[in-house]
Amino acid sequence: MIDGAPQPVAPFSHAVEVDGWVFLTGQMPTDPDNAEAPLPEGVEAQTRRVMDNLKIVLGGLGLGLGLEHVVQARVYLTEFERDYQAMNDTYRSYFPADRLPARTCVGVTGLAVGALVEIDMVARRS
């Protein structure tokens, strides 16, 4: 578990590391300082909160892990057709144009806490 990261909504670790591979559990757009706070409005704001939560988890693992170490991401959207482009624009802003991780994006019927977006990642220590 990572200090300062959002409280999990189910029984899981924020991340697990095996042989330099770091598997980050999907993050929700919850406030890391107040799990009871309302979710941000709209998919752009929720995507920013999710990405910022993922950065907290990566940073909490030590030794300078950051988004530049991410090799793969999975994005889950509850309103795929409506939110796909807006999520993409927000997500893309977190990475250099020439350093985008491999990614899958799927539409789902629901996410925990009524979120519009959830993202999980795999990173690799250098």
What can be said about this structure in brief?
This protein has helices spanning 42-60, 80-92; strands at 15-18, 21-27, 70-77, 102-107, 117-124. The protein is α+β, with helices and mostly antiparallel strands.
State the order of secondary-structure elements, H for helix, E for strand: EEHEHEE
The fourth-level CATH homologous superfamily is RutC-like
For the record, the CATH architecture stands as: 2-Layer Sandwich
The first-level CATH class name: Alpha Beta
Task: Give the overall pLDDT as a whole number.
Answer: 93
Number of helices: 2
- Classify the beta-strand content into a percent band: 25-35%
CATH topology: 60s Ribosomal Protein L30, Chain: A
Query: Can you count the beta strands?
Result: 5
What structural keywords apply?
about 130 residues; alpha+beta; 60s Ribosomal Protein L30, Chain: A; 5-stranded mixed beta sheet; 5 strands; about 25% helix
